[in-house]
Model the fold of this input.
Amino acid sequence: MEHEDIRTFISGKNVDLLPGNNLEHLNLYAKWDNDQETRHYARNVFPILPEAYKKWIEEVKSGTPWKLDFEICDKADKKIIGHVGFNHINWSDRNADIGMVIGEPEYRSKDLGTEAAALVMDYGFNELNMFKIGCGMYEINVGSWKVAEKLGMHREIVYKESAWVDGKYVDEYEYCIFYDEWKEKRKELL
Done:
């Protein structure tokens, strides 16, 4: 999918962040989240249909936003490759969790996700006035926790044996970074 007519919200070196929750891309979102490898690491154990995304988008638009999504567009190929954004936004405490999927397999492991996450974190801290940004993943998702560490996040919590994966229980990791830490780390990343 190309983004010729979609306005870029945040521009980076290799990726642009476009407004998310595009109703024209529901099939693409479902394709990514139903992908066997993505499902394995995200623990999506039930199939997701495009209609479910439409319902979620409509829920997010009502009331105070608790979620904010962007599509990730590869600048070189002008192709939408995934999505990134905030979940569980707590406006009064000024914190949120970041989530991301690089849905197109050929774009994984190229630091595009790291750049997209850095752009959205910078937006969260400097425009949304966040104090703390966190993320969670299972220990088997090595790529995700390596991205978190590249972003300057530190492992704050380990939930021992919290998910059943491949016939055994695995740990869940919670990472975070505070605004003051981000001010220094962003110099390396952006």
